[in-house]
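ok here's the first one, seq then struct tokens
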Amino acid sequence: MKLGAMLRQAGQDGNLPQSPVPPVSQAAPTGPEDYDPREEQIRSKDPFQVLKNRAQEQLFRRLGSRLYDSSMSQDQLQAMVAQELEEAIKAESVPLSSEERQRLVTAVRNDILGYGPMEQFLADESISEVMVNGDDSIYIERGGKLVLTDARFVSNDHLRRVIERIVSKVGRRIDESSPMVDARLPDGSRVNAIIPPLAVKGPALTIRKFSKKKLQVSDLVERGAFTLQTADFLESCVLGRLNIIVSGGTGTGKTTMLNLLSGFIPDDERIVTIEDSVELQLRQRHVVTLETRPPNVEGKGAVEIRDLVKNSLRMRPDRIVVGECRGGETLDMLQAMNTGHEGSLSTVHANNARDTLSRIETMVLMAGMDLPVRAIREQVASAVDMIVQLTRLRDGSRRVTQVTEVVGMEGDRITMADLFKFDFAAGFTPDGKFAGTLKATGIRPMFTERLHDHGIELPAELFGIDSSQMLR
């Protein structure tokens, strides 16, 4: 029976039909230690997966260390894999149509030379994140919701080889002495990997995908992330050289928002971007992109974000954009904002605007400087003009929930004012989505005069007040 017919019959009655596909192991299980429920599940539902695993295991045995021969070009490796794969398929003695054979060859080639079972998810633009928890558990995020897939790796060794293939392409390494790594795919997608002994149950891999199409303001407005009026306001703030911090939790869209805000910077300004792993995709021509470097095998040669921030000050930047402040570099960033590099941008992990200031204080202390708290707060209040807070809501959507001005100091406390807040009281739509939008609070910002000096006028109606009113 052809594999196509087997697949159709298996889909109809839920059982694997009699087929010429040989068992994964010729020996019958002899005890509980030989029983693998995952293999039984694959046999009962997907005979193609059984055949693919068999062909792949044979290919690994045939090729051995030749797969990782650095003297071979990519074309040579492709040709060698194609030849050995044909032999491995012949050895299975399973009659296949040309379409089935091509499908099998593509699947195995992806496993050997590509990203294995993740390849299909990386090609799917509706998927925003791929999370691999060991060889038998691959989750995806689609529409803000997590879904467990049927895909799996052949083994933890197979997963480990894919991880090593990813990190080696960007000059990073991962091994027992350095079991954690941040890297990126050729399309800019963010990769984090962690392996044993830190990952007890096997390697874990997380890939944050970035859309091939650069998101525009209209795209985010259509998705309900914020209103068009808010977008115009944020553009005015960037053009007016305000120092802006984008804050939010993991996966709330901070990098996307930072990309959007950076896109408002005029083309005639020199921009220096600093990141752990390059993710920003600025459209301007005059951009210098800096990336940190991990230590070498001897534990030396590391270049941290703080080193790059200090160096950027000697590069005559008009704007400094730091992908994320997470340590002592925060102090250097504040110093830059306070010493003529206005209009700088960065992101911070925080739950709300007030927590953002607390996080910045804590990170400044991580710089190792014995500064009094009041001095730190004065630096923060002077440097940071506005905070844009992002939240991933329980319906899976990512929204701007606060736009807050940092006003100044009152005693030992930094004062703030919410200019826009998300309307949670609006309830839900019939399909379970949040019905609220970002609404003005009726407060006119203190930095209005600064924007006026740059030739930017903000209408009073933007803040929900009559033009005749002059708050503050």
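and now the second one, same deal
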Amino acid sequence: MPIVDLIGSGLGLIRSESDITTTWVEGVLRGTGALESNVSVASIATERIGEGVGILSVIQRVTPTYSGATSAPATLVVKYPTEDPGQRFTADALTLYAREIVFYRDIAPTVPFKTAQCYAASIETENTDFTVVMEDIGHFRALNQLEGVSLEDAGVLLDVLADFHAQWWGNERLPQMTATFPPLSNPVYHAVLPSFWDAGWPAVLEHTPASVPAGTEAIGAVWSGKCKWMLDNLLEPSTLCHGDYRADNQMFAGPDPVIIDFQIVGAGSGMYDVGYFISQSILPEVRAGHDRELVDRYLARLATHGIRVDRDEAWRQYQIVVCFCVIYSVTNYPRYQNMNDRGQSLLRDMLYRALRAVSDNDALAAIA
């Protein structure tokens, strides 16, 4: 099924819910070949989903009513930029939207996991306005960031993550892809991320100091100065990383993993995805005592692809990642008071889990 070029076709990008019209939806479905020539879209209903989850994007579920019997989708999902100025600044500064567009166009067809089928994907050349139209996969078993991932599910997700990393391990195409998928250590991250931390950490201490476990307070003063060093230590061995590999971006279709959200894809050590996933998607009481076991499972799966990684170096990188990825929650803390209940709960829990992983694995020692 072809992916519709919304700009080239004249359909245009979605900038607000009011732009999602019957004509626009019909144009997308006809462009993909999913809508029969004798059937039209008579009306649509929209529903915003993923609030507090899709932090950098608005996600709308669209339910068309058709003029007759059809095999066209009963629902579809439309994704476009966040309306929050602060979050939009983050997305623009880190060029996140273009990554997802290119991923769906060029990489998604070959990944070793299921993802939502992409119907349309376009981005403006002059700025970062974008729109993605996707299959609605809401019927799959969704994981939940707040509830956490079981060790059994975590093992399966680490297996398929290793399979994905193995596809791109040391791939000669990676250096030519850095304009879209930058390496983890790059000048933009070096310049922007410390400022995000410096703005976010005081907000952490103001709004939810109880989310900072005893013994981890020191990270607040050292993280910015260690940002570039941490990223420099996560460049090799190089592969393509998902970048936001966490429970709210993971589902299961029966026994098979389903992965979504590719806005933070970049090149670097696969341990980045491993450390982020384990430290922030598994409840601390479930994860504690199993970090090395889970890392070893990932390494064992890589070995089935003929890829062997030094276990001690992998563990050192894991500790660095655990410290680095505390930024994911901290960067959003200046907007804490303006978030809905789930968004606030998500930030508090992700911060606490990340810092518990720092504490449980003596990770600060690795960046001292």
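notes on #2: Residues 17-135 form a domain with the Phosphorylase Kinase; domain 1 fold (CATH 3.30.200). The beta strands are 41-49, 57-66, 76-81, 118-123, 130-135, 141-142, 238-241, 250-253, 256-259, 266-269.
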